[in-house]
Amino acid sequence: MIKLGIAGVAGRMGRRIFELAQHDREFEISLALEKKGTSFIGKELGRIKISSSPDGIFLVDVFIDFTLPEATEANLDYVAKYKKAAVIGTTGLSDKQLSKLEEASRLVPIVYSPNMSVGVNILFSILPELAKRLGADYSVEIIEAHHKAKKDAPSGTAKKLAQVIANSTNKEIQIHAVRLGDIVGDHTIIFAGNSERIEIKHQAHSRDLFAFGALKAAKWVVNKPAGLYSMQDVLKE
After folding, report:
1. What's the Cα-to-Cα distance from 225 to each of 77, 90, 107, 166, rounded to whole Å?
2. What is the mean pLDDT of the chain?
3. Distances in Å between the alpha carbon of 6 and those of 63, 74, 78?
4. For helices 208-221 and 12-22, what crossing angle results, to 10°?
5. Which of 12, 133, 158, 222 could form a disulfide with 154 if both were Cys (CB 3.0 to 4.6 A apart)?
6. Kind and range of the H or E element at 14?
7. Which residues are catalytic?
8. Distance CA 226, CA 22 (A)
9. In what order do the strands lie in the sheet with 27-33?
10. 69-81 and 95-105 helices cross at what angle (nearest 10)?
11. How do residues 22-80 score in pLDDT, each as one tens digit?
């Protein structure tokens, strides 16, 4: 059984990961972590009390973090200190924080992806070839929409989509961000040429999509050697 730790367990993603992991016989939840000073600390969630101490990472086999950049940065110190595998889905990481992530991955196995869904990761794979074959006559822009409480804009997924297209075309890809209502996550890639247009759209209807992906990644990474892995590495197997 895999001993699992979850950061931001009172948040939207953390709570859903916790709920789904409870029903998965391969996991035993050993750490439910929340920010120090919040009203959730000490409260029971299932059979475990919510903690504010990242030292609890010592108890787990793999740690999942979908929080905020500053929290993830701090948690990486403990992941490296206790030599634990990790799955990081936090978006909006700065260059400095990404460097820290890479440093930690020299000591422990880490799956890092701005999006854990199967469909989006397939898009990461096929869009470069599509953009290359359409050629310079087609302009490309991305529209992404998320709920009004999402902190970063554009989304990490949109940035990654733009990056993989830019790498194959040497074009700068413009991103338009929308923050409205309770939209879980929509990404539309538009290729426009003379007299025709191709639109590829991915819609997330539930956070379960990302939570299941995170748990799949946690099962995959727990016994891997140190290194920085992507969700595409997880899906290959």
Report:
1. 18, 22, 9, 31
2. 94
3. 6, 14, 13
4. 60
5. 158
6. helix 12-22
7. 146, 150
8. 27
9. 44-45, 48-51, 27-33, 2-7, 62-65, 85-88, 109-112, 227-229
10. 20
11. 999 999 999 999 998 888 898 988 889 999 999 999 999 999 999 999 999 999 999 99
